[in-house]
Amino acid sequence: MVMMKHPFFSLTLLLMVFVSSTTILAQKSPAPTPSTDSAPTDIIRVLKKAGGYTTLIRLLKTTQVSTQINSQLLNSNDGLTLFAANDNAFSSLKPGFLNSLSDEQKNKLVQFHLLPTFVAISNFDTLSNPVRTQAGDDPYRLALNVTSSGNQVNITTGIVNVTLGGTVYTDHQLAVYTVDKVLLPRDFFVAKPPAPAPAPEKAKTSTKKKSTDSDEVPSGNDDSGAFTVKQRRLMLVPVAFATIMVALLSW
């Protein structure tokens, strides 16, 4: 009897040890870290992770366009596309060019690199030229033209021609593509038309009526100019009448 119970006891003891070990391991295992996939997209974090976009990051911050981008991604379903000019692109600009721009122009420059919709690398051939950027839709001063052949995308602004580089980031809401030249709009280099000249003022018409001969007051010191022509004619009537009467009486 003792020999028959021993295997059963050993099996029971083995099961108890296994269950106890599993429980202890489960208690000591660290909790899984929460996934960061649901975190809002931050354009600055994306560019810092990619590396090589120090100047663009500074411009995005000083113009506050980075805050605008993050807000648009949260509140719009259209998405955004950013042509990210790398540090080599900015270093090839004319020395002092960025510092010569006003705050408004710096903002416009960054917005000129942004399309207000998400565009996949294979969908650039569906865009109509000139492509509207967030800098405005002036077809002459802010024109951005895109031509696509397969996965090769060429961009021209009338000042700069560039071929789109690789994809820095995409999540089907934000697409970031690298470019090795800063996209310069014609607006910075074409002279603005002069403001229209103000309309000439209408000549003021005199409300003073010219005096007529009949309104003139004769001077009391000049007997020869005391009467007007009309008054003189009226005086001739009684004189002629008197002459006729004298002639009749003397007849």
UniProtKB/TrEMBL annotation:
Annotated membrane topology: Lipid-anchor; GPI-anchor
Keyword Lipoprotein: yes
Keyword presence, Kinase: no
Major location category of this protein: membrane
Domain of life: Eukaryota
Region (Disordered) residue spans: 194-224
Domain FAS1: 40-183
Cellular component GO terms held in the UniProt record: plasma membrane; side of membrane
Signal peptide: 1-26
Pfam families associated with the record: Fasciclin
Annotated compartments: Cell membrane
Keywords associated with the record: Cell membrane, Glycoprotein, GPI-anchor, Lipoprotein, Membrane, Proteoglycan, Signal
Gene Ontology terms describing biological process: plant-type secondary cell wall biogenesis
Coiled-coil regions listed in the entry: none
Gene3D superfamilies attached to this UniProt entry: FAS1 domain (2.30.180.10)
Family classification: Belongs to the fasciclin-like AGP family.
Function, as annotated: May be a cell surface adhesion protein.
Protein name listed in UniProt: FAS1 domain-containing protein
Organism name: Vicia faba
